[in-house]
Structure formats: C-alpha cells, structure tokens
Design a protein that fits this description.
The complex is a heterodimer of chains A (310) and B (222). Chain A is α/β, with parallel strands linked by helices and 310 residues long. Chain A has a single domain, classed as TIM Barrel (Alpha-Beta Barrel), CATH 3.20.20. Helices cover 41% and strands 14% of the residues of chain A. Chain A has eleven helices and eight strands. In chain A, helix 9 packs across helix 10. Chain A is globular, with a radius of gyration of 19 Å. With 222 residues, chain B is an alpha/beta fold. Chain B folds into two domains: 117 residues, Rossmann fold, CATH 3.40.50.2300; 77 residues, no CATH class. Helices cover 26% and strands 23% of the residues of chain B. Chain B is built from seven helices and nine strands; from the N terminus they run E-H-E-H-H-E-H-E-H-E-E-E-H-E-E-H. In chain B, the strands form three sheets. In chain B, strands 3-2-4-5 form a four-stranded parallel beta sheet, sandwiched between helices. In chain B, strands 1-6-7 form a three-stranded antiparallel beta sheet. In chain B, strand 8 and strand 9 form a beta hairpin. Chain B is elongated and about 65 Å long. Classes of the chains: A alpha/beta (310), B alpha/beta (222). Chains A and B meet through helix 5 and helix 6 of A and helix 7 of B.
Chain lengths: 310, 222
C-alpha cells in the first residue's frame, strides 16, 4: 500500500498510466435512498470513481459524505466533494476523518458556489478557509499527521486529493498559475470545469504542458453532454464561469427536432476521443447531470470500456 | 466611513406610531457624510413622521437634535435634559448610536432609523462601496492594496475562484471581482509572482469571530 498515497482505485488507475474515467452523482433532495442506489447502478463498472457533490449550486441535498457511504455500499468508489461555503475548519477536519474512517479514499476540494444561487440565499456563508487552504489542510493531515492547528492526528486520513480548475473563468492568463498553485498546495488530481470551447482548452493545456504541470498532477478534462438547445443556452448565459461557443448551440439546433440530445452525446464522445490524444490529459470527468442512465452508452461509444482493474 | 441607509418610512412609522412625543437624533459623523443621518435628514424624517401621523388622524410632537457624534459619551450626554420629555427616541446614526443612547438612558425607548450597511466610501456621487470588513488584521498590502476579505464574495485569500467572468463576480454583474482587479494590478506592477505565494488560513480571532471586540489603549485610560 505504501507506494500509494491513498490506495484508491482512481489513484491506482492513474498511476498505472490508464486513461481515467470518473462520473458524477448528485445526492437526492431528500432521503430517497432508492433513487440514489438506482443512479449508482447506472455508473457501476462504467467509471473508476464517482464524484458525490456537496450541496451543489448551493441547493440543499443529502450530505455528500452520507451519499458517498451509500455509493460505497453499492460497490462504487466515491470521490467525496467538500465545499468551503458551509463548514468551518472544525467541521471540515472532523468530516474528513469521518469519511476516511468509513472507507472513502478520494476527496475533491472546492470553494463552492455562492449561496446566492441556491435555495437558501438568506444563509450565512462560512468561507473560514478557501479551496487552496483546504487542499493544503488535507495534505498536511495526510502526510504530516497534523491538524490545521499543528496538533498530532493519531491515524491520519490517507486521501487522494482532488481540486478543480476552470480554464474558462477570467482572467484567463492567470488560470494556469492558479492551477500550479493548487498543485503546489497538494492536489494529486484535477477535474476541470465542463469544457465546450475546445480551442480555449487546447490553449490552456498547451500552457499546462509548457509549465510541466501535467507531470506533477493528473488532469482530468470535464465533459457534460448537452441534453438540449435550452440547456446549452442556459449554460451559456446563467452558469458562472461557463464558456459555451455559439457554434455548439448552432450544431445542436441543426440536429433537428428531438435530436439535440443525440447530437450532444455525439459532441461529448468526440471530445473524449480528442482528450485521449491530448498531451497532458490523464482522463475524463463525465458530469452527466441527472443523466446517469446515459453514461453506459457514452462510455461505450467513447471506447472507455471495460474499465481497467489495477 | 460607516455607510448607512434610511429604513423605509413605513417601517419607522410602525415602530413609533403609538408614541406621541418622539425625538429624532442625528449624528454629524459618518451618517452626515453619506447623507442619511445628519441635521438635514433629521428635519426630513421629523416632517415625514408628522405627515404620517396626520394621515392617520393623530397628532404627534417631534423634536429634532443632531449630536456631534453618537459614539462618544460626552456628546450623548448633551441630550440628558430633554430625553425625559419624550416617549420615544429615533437614532439615525449608525448602529452604535441607538446603543449608546440605550445604555446612557436606560428608561428611554430607542429605535433605529437607519440600517447600517458597511465600512466604505463614495465611489461616485450617490454611490457607496464596501472596502473594509474590520477583520482586525489588515493584509491589503499582499493584494495590491485591495481587500479580498471585504470585497471577494467568498473572502478568498488565494483567488480568483472559477466564477470570475469579465471582471465581474459570479453573484452579480453589479459586483466587481476584486481578484480580477488584484491580478491585473500586480501584473501591471510586474509583481504577479507574489500571488503564487500560498496564503495560509486566516486567524479570525481578531475579527468578530473571536467574540465582541474591545480595544484598550493603556496610555489613554485615566
């Protein structure tokens, strides 16, 4: 086990040089365990790990750790997400120990969408620490067996540390430096924001490779298949930090009535195929939002199956 | 300065409608500068309350006074002789005013006439913007003289987050992304490498998180 930082399946797959494939599962807006188990079944055997979102878009859902445990029971490997919006450093560290104690081995550290977007905009936000500091805190807990205050941890949480990168947010020129900073802080792998503007992403990856960042960290390219022209328009206008080129909206429209979803999947598959060849990209993170049942066919079409066993 | 805005007149009226003798107390400090709680606004509020009373078929008496400051006991003391004449007091100073008045005059009914917003300044005539969160440990020099604690919606010390778009914050097109400004400022000064320094978690004990704050200057204490 010592050759690995965490021994998670995702870490093993990446370290063995396989092109990784991760999925995503949003917990239910309630305690609907059956629905969650059903979503999980669509992803089983299709991906190397499944991100479990933490009150994504600041909408209250079943907690990410609880949903992660249910995925574990279903035989999937969770990638436990944690945002800085809802917890202070005490709650974060105790949850980190708790998830590790229950067998979770991957964790994604995020700032989190501002609560203004969600269904409790009246809430107080926390942001005791930021995502960079969270990455560093998890690394310190794991590698130095120390809490943030410097006190000893008896059994440290050996987690594979993930972080996000949005190549499409501004200022563009700083984005690669921010990525470098996250790697320096302790990120083992990166999952990017959903990519639609391929030209911009190619440019971003070129800079990543020029700086040698892909050799210090595994970079997984984010893909979210478009389900409809409406979704594409919504993403283009309403979702912060999203870059949806007009050409893609046109392409989806051009597919004709009732065929935009198939075209969206086709575009996603083309993207995955290009990412497989792109220098510096170690895998794909597929965020099929409320579309888990389409993941098997996307995985099949993109030639991602079967998933490797390491 | 401390920036405040007047509460809606109806809200103030609802607070005081059962009182017959009301004293409106202004402040010549920050709230005068931001045009919300000075002598002029005291007069306007007093007249508005009288009109509201008349509309409701009642007659009220409204006194007007504007103190040098409401955050200094010596000035708060100046109304000691007239306070007993009134059933209610409306302070249109920042949140410090109604509290200093309440503490100094325990039997008075004191109401706030303004909502205290933030510490900031006028960026244009009629537009004020937040600059300081009063965290108790100033760090603006790390960020090109701009404060991410007060001005980033997430108070990120290692920003910008993935929601920065076209120089604006993800929460609103009306809010500038301070991290965009910080990056541009340090780039123009050729000091971008300073932003590559990891800023560790902040010690919030000096902020409100450490509990209500108090400052003692021994040399000034009699």
């Amino acid at each position: 086990m010592s050759e690995y930082k965490s021994g998670s399946n995702l870490e093993k797959v990446l370290k063995a040089g396989h092109f990784a494939f991760t999925g995503e599962c949003g917990p239910p807006q309630g305690a609907n365990v059956e629905k969650l188990r059903e979503k999980a079944q669509h992803l089983k055997g299709m991906v190397d790990a499944v991100n479990v979102t933490d009150n994504q878009t600041a909408v209250v859902r079943m907690s990410s750790w609880a949903a992660s445990l249910i995925l574990l029971q279903e035989g999937l490997e969770p990638n436990f997400q944690m945002v800085c919006r809802d917890r202070n450093r005490l709650a974060m560290q105790s949850d980190i120990l708790g998830v590790y104690a229950h067998g979770i081995r991957n964790m994604l550290c995020l700032s989190g969408d501002h609560q203004k977007f969600g269904n409790h905009p009246q809430s107080k936000n926390v942001y005791d620490i930021d995502s960079m500091q969270l990455i560093h805190m998890v690394k310190t807990m794991r590698d130095e067996s120390k809490f943030l205050n410097g006190e000893e941890i008896d059994v440290p949480p050996r987690l594979f540390i993930g972080a996000a990168s949005n190549p499409f947010a501004d200022p563009f020129d700083f984005r690669v430096y921010r990525l470098a900073k996250k790697i320096e802080a302790g990120a083992d792998f990166i999952q990017t924001q959903c990519i639609y503007n391929m030209d911009k992403f190619r440019e971003f990856m070129k800079r990543v490779v020029d700086m040698g960042l892909h050799e210090k960290c595994y970079i997984l390219a984010g893909v979210t298949p478009m389900k409809s022209v409406g979704m594409a328009r919504y993403m283009a206008k309403q979702v912060p930090g999203m870059d949806v080129p007009e050409s893609l909206i046109k392409r989806l429209k051009g597919a004709g009535k009732g065929k935009a979803a198939e075209e969206g999947i086709k575009f996603a598959v083309e993207q995955i195929q290009e990412f497989k060849e792109m220098e510096g990209v170690a895998g794909v993170h597929l965020m099929a939002i409320e579309w888990e049942h389409r993941v098997p066919e996307i995985a099949e079409m993109a030639g991602m199956l079967p998933r490797p066993t390491v | 300065m401390i920036v405040a805005e007047q509460k809606p007149l109806m809200e103030i009226w609802e607070m005081v409608k059962d009182y017959k003798k009301i004293l409106v107390i202004g402040c010549k400090g920050c709230v005068t500068v931001c045009n919300v709680g000075g002598a002029k606004e005291v007069g306007i509020l007093a007249s508005s309350l009288k009109i509201a009373a008349k509309k409701n078929g009642s007659l009220i008496e409204v006194g007007e006074v504007t103190l040098e400051r409401q955050c200094d006991p010596e000035y708060v003391d100046e109304v000691k002789d007239i306070i007993p004449d009134y059933d209610a007091v409306i302070s249109i100073a920042c949140g410090v005013g109604p509290q200093f008045l309440s503490e100094r005059y325990p039997s008075a009914r004191v109401f706030p006439g303004v909502n205290t917003k933030f510490m900031g300044g006028a960026v244009e005539h009629g537009i004020w913007s937040e600059r300081c969160a009063g965290c108790g440990t100033c760090v603006v020099h790390y960020f090109g003289g701009l404060c991410p604690i007060a001005r980033c919606s997430k108070s990120l010390l290692n920003g910008p987050c993935g929601g920065s778009s076209g120089g604006k914050c993800e929460i609103s097109k009306e809010v500038d992304c301070v991290w965009d400004m910080i990056v541009k400022k340090l780039t123009s000064q050729g000091r971008l490498d300073e932003l590559m320094t990891f800023r560790p978690p902040k010690d919030w004990t000096t902020a409100r998180d450490g509990g209500p704050r108090r400052m003692i200057r021994e040399e000034l204490v009699k």
